[in-house]
């Protein structure tokens, strides 16, 4: 048996550990061979595939990024499933492990369920927005980097008696903002799931300021203030209710400064959150997911993905996991709010 | 209402975050007051107690150690439950949050269940050996420190073509060795739950060496080789089957060197694993546990402890959790073994 | 004797270690008292001053920021030297240690030399742009943070086959870009002292790309491409040769992408470089500078500052140090260029 | 021209950056070729040598250890200089860059000066004990790791009201203990250059304890208490004035506990200080030294080594540098003592 493995979509810490886990498990427990597919679906469509041995995955558990490269190529582009079948046959590949986020897994589910292609999945989303798994790998590392960054920013904010607005990843969900905000003791946490009006933000900032703290505002990139549309309308601004180009942190900082009178600066963590060596937590999770994916490929569990349930790695139908976002639930938001201000 | 809070037994990263979480939640959601009990049961028995305000817990989520101090004083010493009742009454304290490990919680359970004292618990064990919770706080930080240390040691081992034996915490269970060993790509992982004979260890070391790697052996402090008794008997050694004073790593290193011919060094991480700022993961877990404990105290859930179940904080009877160790199960050991050698 | 101490201008890692060093040395070796002046010259002009004891400076060597606060208040505002004389007399303060950058030290020099005020200095500039000292404290920490950040960004750049433009501090000089760029193995380093034309930048990027690397461009915030004026003129752009609001990294990224065809992203490290715990190097340097400043105050070395010469702390006339920037010299730039591309 | 390069003696952070700097500079500025000599003098004596290209040194600036391996083989063993001449001739190698510590450089000096071999040097000693250079690379990283470790240990010491004894590297000199002790705010620093009697150590510990601190004792591995001989004689102990097998920290801890009544624990940092990614400071220093060494080889500066003088890389005769240890001078010790207790 020969298993192809690929990483697709945005990269994240832990991809290499998944690859290593899968190859080690496959090679040692099942005596199967591996092939590395370059840059996600692109490599499968363009036949950019090379052998991948246990030698190639040595020392990978702690290395950031992905040795296989990644791209956002769509699986139904450039020949689509038919072309894939050709390539798999030509290469003698009997199974594909697709590691990727919502888009990748939706594609993988369709390929497996509708086209009959031999695909299993491993979920990867730094934002932790994928249902069907307790946590996704990469999320812990991103939260750790954000937390460490906020720790740093706090010291300079306190020295200058400033408010600091920190923008973290999270286009649709606020998990990183929630965890990093709680871990670093933020005074305001702003997430897409629970839009609050400007006044609430200012109140949190003032409350921290009144107690002599340098207010720390953590905002997910996808957050939009509840009354942003009205504010824009009232000001006759052309902006249409969406954060402007510079991002939400840059938009909020001057507004907070104006409303509260406290000097306010913004920082956008951006790509820093994706990079570097994964945390021990993510390395363990990734390795286990990779090992489980090798088992799934050998057992021909097409259309399934490896996922975390409490302390166990289990199997979940990809089609069930990809149809909805995992949002921060009301209970976690209520818990967080007690700590704000 | 006034809630006393204390930390007892060995310290660990996250204790301060639990304290902060409890005080913030209690003060803000329930309008209760807090009192800080110094050095665990000692402070309760000797009436070493001071007010603890939200001001006192500012900025604590990322600070290592415990601002309340800790000790190993036994709750049934120095007056015991009767003396505690006196002190609680005199101080007007209506509930006690006890944060500690197996011993502390066993004491807390007995005080609550048998003596009718108003005690709730928060489990803390760096070793992660407590049943009734998915993970305990402090464990992630310890695993992270061990992983980072092994990453470091690997570079010097490779330069010198040496084998490196790293001793991590884990007197009765091998969770830290398991996680750090998997995260850092160790070639041998030795844990108390699954004693292996010397020859297996040497085989793992030789296998790594044969592939050109610098063999990394991670050993939990409580590991004893399966055939240690025989080895000792055969050599006419006075050592009686227990690791000698210097610890298991120091004992193994020269044996590995002798058996495999590869120069071998040992490092004992020791207290480093307890210290310093907790990881983001542990800060979030600790904060949530502290907040839940404040709720439990207010709701008079005596004899219960806050614990982690998947992604939720739940309540568990302390008496049920403390009666057995949470050992590394066979399935996790089998999973690990595939990666060794 | 009573010594006032203050921090002024932008904050930086190591300020607290200077304060601690000065107070410990003064209290223990000279038996003098200290007073903490809040927020730089503001505290001196507004009499915002409190006693500062060895107790207050406990554990400060590793803490970022400044416990005394800082501001950009000008020493000749609000009453100026006359007002300072009044406040110093009223408080019984016989000497002032002023810790700050070019502006602060220029003010301190004038106060000491022209007004006869009892002021000594400690140089602080993260940018390392101050003459009269080998290095300033804070610079090593900022370079370390920038280096670690570039290490992180490299992994994500490589996974996506992208070029990454990283903007670091350095309005007038390129020391941080030079050191972080060399430490992290950047393919292009752009500093204000040596403007290069766009084509050179693109050539460096292409050269790295041709060798299969993800090109890393490190740019100091004050860098302006040599032919920027022409480019702007040719395009009929209204921009007048200065980097646009978003910063030089944001300006360069799309130009590099257009010219080289490689997808390019930018990251601005900003305030992250000022924050957090200082490196061991900066802690040692800061502590020693603070200790030397206490000696200088006791010995009435008005108008002098403590500075680093090789491995020794020496005294330098502030007026001599502040009249010119310490730029990256041609020799260091030539050395760097060999490594680029 | 072809230049051989080797690393010899104990490894340390920055070796790879030196190699990369030399190869990049030689290849790009001088168009010379490189050959990698495996495991120090062993590779030269046993002709274990391979080509080393710029491709081989990609991404090395931040990697710990040495890709060339190292050993403690003596240059006058196994054929010695005559054999080396043969190998160099056979391989067409015109110059050798030897990177190593006191022993390596003493050998290199003799080979160059007495035997006429074409050897230049780069000094490497983590202990910073080599004269003729301000600092050696690796020292900053080791000091940083020790500082971070002491920061960690402090939190657990404070929680338990314990004294912590931390043993750092430094067989003959106390530079790491001095810098890490100052950076981390230690209460006692014990270095070989300035032996103090037991009573002074106890006094420092008690003084910290009296002020409510958890006493931190940093001891260089080569420290011997001034009156150790007497203590041993008085106790009728067989130990002859040298630290016993377990190291000085293990020896001191129970004595401190007995004398002061404070519970005392010891930690030996050992190999951790050699491992892992070098600091930004060490990467810059190493890269510059490597580049300078390539120049020296091209310019046939036999018998010289690259060294740091203030901010410049200069050349120093190896024979002059290796004949004496660089000890911590009295002035630095006096400076340190003010901060102790």
TrEMBL record, chains A, B, C, D:
Mg(2+) binds at residue 102. It holds the Pfam family PFK. One of its GO terms (molecular function) is fructose-6-phosphate binding. The record marks 103 as: Important for substrate specificity. One of its GO terms (biological process) is canonical glycolysis. Pathway: Carbohydrate degradation; glycolysis; D-glyceraldehyde 3-phosphate and glycerone phosphate from D-glucose: step 3/4. Keywords: ATP-binding, Cytoplasm, Glycolysis, Kinase, Magnesium, Metal-binding, Nucleotide-binding, Transferase. It catalyses: beta-D-fructose 6-phosphate + ATP = beta-D-fructose 1,6-bisphosphate + ADP + H(+). SUPFAM superfamilies: Phosphofructokinase. The active site is at residue 127. PROSITE patterns: PHOSPHOFRUCTOKINASE (PS00433). GO terms for cellular component: 6-phosphofructokinase complex. ATP binds at residues 10, 72-73, 101-104. Its cofactor is Mg(2+). Residues 2-296 form the Phosphofructokinase domain. Catalyzes the phosphorylation of D-fructose 6-phosphate to fructose 1,6-bisphosphate by ATP, the first committing step of glycolysis. Belongs to the phosphofructokinase type A (PFKA) family. Mixed-substrate PFK group III subfamily. This is ATP-dependent 6-phosphofructokinase. It comes from Brevibacterium yomogidense.
């Amino acid at each position: 048996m020969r298993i192809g493995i690929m990483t697709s979509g945005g990269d994240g810490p832990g991809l290499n550990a998944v690859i290593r886990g899968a190859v080690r498990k496959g090679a040692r427990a099942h005596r199967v061979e591996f092939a590395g597919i370059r840059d996600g679906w692109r490599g499968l469509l363009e036949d950019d595939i090379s052998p991948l041995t246990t030698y190639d995955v040595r020392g990978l558990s702690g290395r950031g990024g992905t040795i296989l490269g990644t791209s956002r190529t769509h699986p139904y582009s450039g020949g689509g499933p038919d072309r894939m079948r050709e390539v798999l046959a030509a290469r003698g590949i009997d199974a594909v492990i697709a590691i990727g986020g919502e888009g990748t897994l939706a594609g993988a589910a369709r390929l497996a369920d509708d086209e009959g292609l031999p695909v299993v999945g491993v979920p990867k989303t730094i934002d932790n927005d994928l249902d069907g798994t307790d946590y996704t790998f990469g999320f812990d590392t991103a939260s750790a980097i954000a937390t460490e960054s906020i720790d740093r920013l706090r010291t300079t904010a306190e020295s200058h008696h400033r408010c600091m607005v920190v923008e973290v990843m999270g286009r649709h969900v606020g998990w990183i903002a929630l965890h990093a905000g709680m871990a670093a003791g933020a005074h305001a946490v702003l997430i897409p799931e629970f839009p609050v009006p400007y006044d609430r933000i200012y109140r949190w900032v003032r409350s921290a300021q009144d107690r002599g703290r340098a207010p720390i505002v953590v905002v997910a990139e996808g957050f939009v203030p509840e009354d942003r549309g009205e504010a824009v309308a009232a000001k006759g601004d052309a902006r249409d209710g969406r954060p402007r180009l510079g991002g939400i942190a840059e938009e909020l900082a001057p507004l907070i400064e104006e409303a509260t009178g406290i000097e306010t600066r913004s920082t956008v963590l951006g790509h820093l959150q994706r990079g570097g060596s994964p945390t021990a937590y993510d390395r363990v999770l990734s390795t286990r997911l990779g090992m489980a994916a090798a088992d799934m490929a050998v057992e021909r569990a097409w259309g399934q993905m490896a996922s975390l349930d409490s302390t166990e790695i289990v199997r979940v139908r990809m089609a069930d996991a990809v149809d909805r976002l995992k949002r921060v639930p009301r209970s976690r938001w209520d818990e967080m709010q007690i700590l704000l201000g």
